[in-house]
Write a structure and sequence with these properties.
By secondary structure, this protein is of the alpha+beta class. It has one domain: Hotdog Thioesterase (Thiol Ester Dehydrase, Chain A, Roll), CATH 3.10.129.10. 34% of the residues lie in helices and 32% in strands. It contains 4 helices and 8 strands; from the N terminus they run ααββββαββββα. The chain has a 6-stranded antiparallel β-sheet. A two-stranded antiparallel ribbon has the order 3-4.
């Protein structure tokens, strides 16, 4: 029995890794992304509103790239936890449907669920909203895959952490 065969053990592993899963990503740190929760096959993240992330200064609307990065990252975390917290997957496919601009001044929250993870591929669905999940800013469908490159990146990150180096 692996440590992730027991749901409590998997949650303990995810809780231990959670701080590294956002703070270990330079672009997520630069955008100010925050992890809200991480459970097996489910992740929630927030992009706090910041004037530095506005795409159109006249309207104060967040740049669409912030929403894209948020959805990609939260989907990746849902896939990672859906795989059992062992292997870091790479984005294979990401499709976004923008429904409307995020309201100026409001944080955007994204919730993702791993629909199926089998073998080397996970399929994920996510919704980004600014307060009402029934009035989404954008939705995403994604596929993630464990690859040699993603495993090599994970190995580099783990070595850096073990040696006390910044990622």
């Amino acid at each position: 029995m692996s440590h992730t065969d027991n749901p409590d053990d998997l949650q303990a592993l995810l809780d231990e890794l959670a701080p590294l899963l956002v703070d270990g990503s330079p672009h997520a740190v630069a955008l100010g992304l925050k992890l809200v929760s991480l459970k097996p096959g489910h992740a929630v993240m927030c992009a706090p509103y910041s004037p530095d992330l506005v795409g159109d200064p006249e309207t104060g609307i967040l740049h669409g790239g912030v929403i894209t990065a948020l959805l990609d990252h939260v989907c990746g975390l849902a896939a990672f936890s859906g795989f059992g917290g062992h292997d870091t997957p790479a984005t294979l496919d990401l499709r976004l449907d923008y429904m409307r601009p995020a309201k100026p001044g409001l944080d955007v929250t994204a919730e993702a669920v791993s629909l199926k993870s089998h073998g080397l591929v996970a399929f994920v669905r996510a919704t980004a909203h600014d307060g009402d999940i029934n009035d989404p800013v954008a939705t995403a469908q994604a596929a993630f895959m464990i690859t040699k490159a993603s495993q090599a990146a994970q190995d580099r990150a783990m070595k850096a952490l073990q040696n006390g180096q910044a990622l």
